Amino acid sequence: MKFHYILLINQVSGNGNGKKTGAIIQNLLDEQKMSYESYYTEYAGHEAELAKELANSKLIGWNAEIKADYADKLYPLLVVIGGDGTLHQVLNQFYRMDKEIPVSYIPGGSGNDFARGINLPKDPQKAFWAIQRAKEPQVINTLTYEEKIQTETGLAINNIGIGLDAAIVAATNDSMTKKTLNKYNLGSFAYIASIVKVLFTQKGFPILLEVNGEEFTFKKAFLCTTTNHPYFGGGVAIAPMAKATVSDIDLVVVERISMIKIFGLIIRLITNKLTTSKHYHHFTGHKLRIVSTVPEYGQADGEVMGLRPFDITFSTRPQLIWYYPE
Description:
Blueprint: E1 3-9, H1 17-31, E2 36-40, H2 46-57, H3 64-69, E3 75-82, H4 84-97, E4 103-107, H5 113-117, H6 124-133, E5 138-147, E6 152-156, E7 159-163, H7 164-173, H8 176-182, H9 187-199, E8 205-211, E9 214-227, E10 231-232, E11 236-237, E12 249-255, H10 262-270, E13 280-285, E14 288-300, E15 303-321
Parallel strand pairs: 1-2, 1-3, 3-4
Antiparallel strand pairs: 5-6, 5-15, 7-9, 7-14, 8-9, 8-14, 9-12, 10-11, 12-13, 14-15
Helix pairs in contact: 2-4, 7-9, 8-9
C-alpha cells in the first residue's frame, strides 16, 4: 500500500518529545522521497480542530471499494504524532462527527500506553516502518461512554477511571515533578510519585456496577477503572488480561485497604502483581455501567473529567489503525 502521509504533530506533547518525533519522521520521509504534508498544533485543543478540518477536506474512509480504487494511487493516511491525549482528541473529534476514518499513530508523549497496549514500537522510525509494512488496517477496540448526570459522551483509547487512578492523574498533571522528569523521558516516575502520594489520601467510596445483566456493589471502592488494554500511567499493568484487539470491556475494582497494607499494594502495583490481591476484582463484558453517588475524580485517557458523581455506561466501538503488529 502506498500513502500520502498527512502528519498531525503535537509539538508540546511529552514536553517537546512530539516535536522531536515529528522531525525524525519528516527527515525519514524526505530521505525516502515519500509524499507527505504536515500540520502542527499551536494550542490546547487544536488537534481536534485540525482533525475536523482534515476529515472534511482530505481524509476518507476504508472499505473494499476504496482499497481497489487506491490500488495504483496514494491513499491519504493521517499520522498522529504525539501522546495518548493527542490521539484521544483526534478520535473523539471523529466520533462526534460520526466519521469512520482509519488513522496511524507514532508515539511522542510521556506515557505512550496506547502504543504499548497494541505492541506498536516506541522508537519513531520503527513505528513508521510498522505502518509502512501494513497491507490492511488493524481493527482495534475503543471504549465509548455516556454519562447521564452531566449528559456527556465520548471515546477513550486507553481507560476511563473513577477514584484512585483519576486522583493520581489530577495530582500528576498538577505536579512540577512531571514537567522536570519529562525532560529526561522519565514521565512514568512522576506517575509513581503521585501514586505514593494519593494512595495515602484516597478514601473508599460506594459504587454500583452492572455487568452483563448482573449487579455488584462495593462499599469501599478505591479504584474503579474500565480499560481497553493492560496499561495505564506509563506502563503500569492494571489489567494484564485485557486486549485491545478484543471487543470486550475490562473493568477493575480495587477495594480500600488499611494503611498498614498499602505498602504491599504499592509493591504489587509496581511489580505488576496486583491481580494476586484478594482486594482486586476483575469483570469483563460488552456493556457496563458504573454508578458513584459520592463525588470522585474521573479521568479519560489521562484527561481529568472533574470531581463529581457519575452514572456512566460503557460500550465499545471498533477503530481502524494502520500498523503491522509485532
